Amino acid sequence: MYVYIDLLSLENILVNYGILSVTEKLSGMASAAWRKLISAAIGTVYLVIMLSCPSIRSLYTIGGKIVLSVLMVVAAFPLRKVKNLFKVLLSFYITSFIFAGAGYALMSLTGQVIYHKNGVFYNGFRSDALLLILTICFGFLLVRAFTDLFRKRIERESYIVNTCIIIDGKSVSMPALIDTGNNLLDPVTRCPVMVAELDGLKEILPPKMIEWVKNWSQTDKAEISLENDLEWMRRIRLIPFNSIGNTSGVLPGFKPDRISVEKEEYCFENTEVVVCVCKNRLSSGNRYRAIISPEMVSA
């Protein structure tokens, strides 16, 4: 059996790049294409050394494979926190196991002869390119199915961020859920809308504003009396919405000076946001006190 290093290297770079791309989606950590290429090349160089120097036994150990995975992850992702490293590593291992299982399953199902030498599996398939394409496609489908099954659990941990609302020199912070279904917009300015609990906003709202929101209902719109505070009158917004079981309604809100959102090691600031006030609790477990749209955490 002959092994062509150039073809094996090309195939390995493509597979590594595919695994890193899926890892990026699964972990929610951004990575540039050139970083993923460098990381894929690191994995390929490791493979070539394994084949060329079988006497280096440390390359075949679990420790050697863990060191390789850490090097690939660090090269592919600009990580600043240890918890992000473990998060990406876990996503990388899950994706790698799924891709490896997909390739092995395809070779077994198609009745291919499988060779194992120096820690690497080979097959007797006439067209390695076709098997490579099938493996990548099958792997992507399996990962997609995996993420769909566990999406809710992943989002609970990954999509709760810290938000800070600043207005008139005052500020208040609260945990917020990034809700992909939140498409509320100010009908006039088309600004994204954030929904926050009234109890979490009392420190920055004037007393008359708090009283107005408390008396607000969809059937009986309360009037607000802020004639002596024209600045706050200019900030007030009424946002229409549609929901299940409620054909239409209007949410009372206001326009803050700015909102800051911290997600992982990134901080997003936005001055064009409307905050709608909700009298009820948004989370039964009190894990978050506001809901924001994905647009507020995009560069």
Could you please describe the fold and organization of this structure?
The structure is a single chain. This protein is α+β, with helices and mostly antiparallel strands. The chain folds into two domains: 5-157, no CATH class; 160-297, no CATH class. It has helices at 5-27, 33-52, 62-76, 82-109, 128-158, 207-214, 230-235; strands spanning 114-117, 120-123, 160-167, 170-178, 193-197, 236-243, 246-254, 258-263, 266-270, 274-278, 290-292. A nine-stranded mixed beta sheet has the order 6-7-10-5-11-4-3-8-9. The protein has a two-stranded antiparallel ribbon with strand order 1-2. A hairpin with a 2-residue loop joins strand 3 (160-167) and strand 4. The two termini are 51 Å apart.
Structure characteristics:
44% helix, 299 residues, alpha+beta, 2 domains, elongated, two-stranded antiparallel ribbon, 9-stranded mixed β-sheet
Helix content: 40-55%
Show unreliable segments. Answer: none
Q: Which outline best applies?
A: elongated
Structural class, judged by helices and strands?
alpha+beta
Beta strand count: 11
Q: Give the integer mean of the pLDDT values.
A: 77
Number of domains: 2
Strand content: 15-25%
> Largest sheet, described in full?
9 strands, mixed
Distance between the termini: 51 Å
Q: Strands of the biggest beta sheet: in what spatial order? A: 6-7-10-5-11-4-3-8-9
In oligomeric terms, what are we looking at? Answer: single chain
Element order: H for helix, E for strand: HHHHEEHEEEHHEEEEEE
